[in-house]
Amino acid sequence: MRLWHWINALSITVLAITGYFIGQPLPTMPGEASDHFLMGYIRFAHFASAYVFAIGLLGRIYWAFVGNAHARELFTLPIFSAAYWRSVGVMLKWYAFLIPQPGKYVGHNPMARLAMFFGYFCLSVFMLCTGFALYGEGLGMGSWADTLFGWVIPLFGQSQDVHTWHRLGMWAMVTFIILHIYAAIREDIMG
Known about the structure:
Blueprint: H1 2-23, H2 38-66, H3 69-72, H4 82-95, H5 110-139, H6 144-149, H7 152-156, H8 159-190
């Protein structure tokens, strides 16, 4: 599980950095364009990391089916349980320094489950769908990515809209990562 976590963290880091440069390319390089392949290398790193990320997410979903109850926590939310939502409120107060002691939980606490479901799982599926739709557009009609994800671009309207939403998703993922690191360090020190 730790190996998956850190491979996932590395792939997200590479995806965010290379994705930023794909959206905001570097200034032009001096000399002939044929002498440089910088954007090609950046795009290759982005696409390779996307494959690693996608395979990792599929592996994590598989682990939810064959692993123990804690392996399923990221994919299931007891949203109809009033006690769950009260526990989420308590954890929110804990993270905001409003109460001195949180509840004790084995596995992820209720706030972590909520954040991991929406901030990681749903956002990851969104990023993979929009990313592979853009990738399929580059590969051309009839490619595997266009066949599986060709419906995404018409859903959003046009390619540029998908680019915009994909980029906003990157910033949402960066925000989630910052909050995730904060919560992990706070729990390690205070919990």
